[in-house]
Amino acid sequence: MIEQISTTDAPGAVGPYSQAIKVGDLLFVSGQLPIDPGTGEFNSVNAVEQAEQCLSNLRAIAKAAGTELSRTVKTTVLLTDLGDFIEVNGVYASFFSPPFPARACYEVKALPKGAKVEIEAVISLV
Fold first, then answer.
1. Known catalytic residue at 54
2. What DSSP string runs through 59-114?
3. How many CB atoms sit inside 10 A of residue 97's CB?
4. Which of 21, 50, 63, 123 could pair with 27 in a Cys bridge, judged by C-beta atoms 3.0 to 4.6 Å apart?
């Protein structure tokens, strides 16, 4: 059974997709942009602060699904400049503890709305 997960504690989808989909024991969270759910705007133009907002949004969606960010099994980090990797990695590390999730990180030409960072996740529900 497929269940849509949605919360006002994270920004709404900016296109035809769900914030997250729950299937079996897994939660598939769509890529989160650095949008502050209170203002509907980016929290910053700084990649590190944007990453922090992306991860906060992921945490809010995990909570809405009845799980925690600590149960994340896989993330994908998209950056428009891999020169930001080390600093963004520091923020990322502050949201997780061992065992760290599996992860891929890519530099991309552009992200929606001009974001510098987008992060998606697969999170265990058990």
1. no
2. HHHHHHTT--GGGEEEEEEEES-GGGHHHHHHHHHHH--SSPPEEEEEE-S--GGG
3. 8
4. 123
Helix (H) or strand (E) holding 57: helix 47-64
Which residue reads 């080390």 in tokens?
Answer: 86
- Give pLDDT tens digits for 28-81: 999 999 999 999 999 999 999 999 999 999 999 999 999 999 999 999 999 999
- Kindly state the tokens that stand for 58: 């992921």
pTM recorded for the entire structure: 0.96
What span, in angstroms and rounded, lies between the C-alpha atoms of 78 and 22? 22
Catalytic residue chosen out of the listed positions 21, 26, 48, 105: 105
In the block, tokens 């529900």 appear at 125
d(CA 2, CA 42): 30
CA pair distance 62, 66, nearest whole angstrom: 6
Q: Is the peptide bond before 11 cis (omega within 30 degrees of 0)?
A: no
**Side-chain-side CA neighbours of residue 30 (13 Å):** 19
